Amino acid sequence: MKAGASRPDASTGAPQASTYDPDCRRCPRLASFLDRVKLEHPDYFCRPVPPFGDANAKLLIVGLAPGLHGANATGRPFTGDWCGPMLFSALYRAGFASAPESRSATDDLKLINCRISNAVKCLPPANKPELDEIRRCNDYLRAEFEPQGSIRVILALGQIAHRASLTALSLKAAAWPFGHHAVHLLQPGLTLVDSYHVSRYNTQTGRLTVDMFDAVLADIRGRLS
Ligand code: SF4
After folding, report:
1. Domain span at residue 152?
2. Against a cut of 0.85, is the pTM above it?
3. Residue 117 belongs to what H/E stretch?
4. Residue 189: which residues within 8 A CB-CB, separation 6 or more?
5. Which of 37, 63, 72, 150 is 20 to 30 A from 80, comparing alpha carbons?
6. Which of 29, 15, 1 is nearest to 120 (CA)?
7. Are the beta carbons of 134 and 164 closer than 8 angstroms?
8. How far is the CA of 137 from the centre of ligand 1 (A)?
């Protein structure tokens, strides 16, 4: 198990299941795609992108997958592409980030009581992971919810993140339908909140506005107070 890939058990200090493996190549299609992208862009990260943020956070944000010129290039979720500015500026306004911008994986941005991961850790062609890839990568997401885990609210950005979060918790998607700003009380002490993804399409078409996203985060802030 890689250093930094596992979260310690809060009571024993023993390592738990891994939330991330920087050398994972369990998805052959994605591994070979990353190899090709690395040849075209030698300066890009081009590996499974690790979760970012507070290891003991109460809020876990789940996105879809790294973007080609965003997280796949920089090595930090939602950093370097269209989606990042809307997400991080909203997190800052809601008190979940120390700054309104994520410039690189090595800047001094800190997430506060917040952690960001993706349903799929590797860049998928055309931003579309296949079902078996989502299933395979779910092991890492599941590890975020180990019994002694700190997560109290999950914010799922989009349908795939919503379904992946439910799968990670062994819950049926049919019982918890996705909807923007839908709030699902999954079990005592654990709530799933949905939002449309902060994608270019959703924000440019007005499907998701800054005010709508701020309202979701304000709701979550209230639930964690
Ligand atoms: S998507 Fe997930 S399971 Fe598949 S190779 Fe990447 S890290 Fe491994």
Report:
1. 28-224
2. yes
3. strand 114-118
4. 152
5. 150
6. 29
7. yes
8. 5
24 Cα–ligand 1 center, Å: 6
Which residues form ligand 1's pocket by a CB distance below 6 Å?
Answer: 24-27, 30-31, 48, 120-122, 133, 136-137
Any domain includes 21 = no
Closest alpha carbon to 165 in 64, 62, 78: 62
DSSP string, 52-78: EE-TT-SEEEEES---TTTHHHHSSTT
Domain membership of residue 6 (yes or no) is no
Instruction: Enter the tokens of residue 83.
Output: 């989606």
Confirm whether 32 is domain-assigned. yes
Going from the Cα of 7 to the center of ligand 1, the distance in angstroms, rounded, reads 18
**The domain that contains 140 carries what CATH number?**
3.40.470.10
Q: Specify the number of domains making up the chain.
A: 1
Are 88 and 102 in contact by the 8 Å Cβ rule? The answer is yes
Mean pLDDT, each 10-residue run in order, the chain (225 residues): 40 58 97 98 98 95 97 98 95 98 97 98 97 97 84 97 97 96 96 97 97 98 95
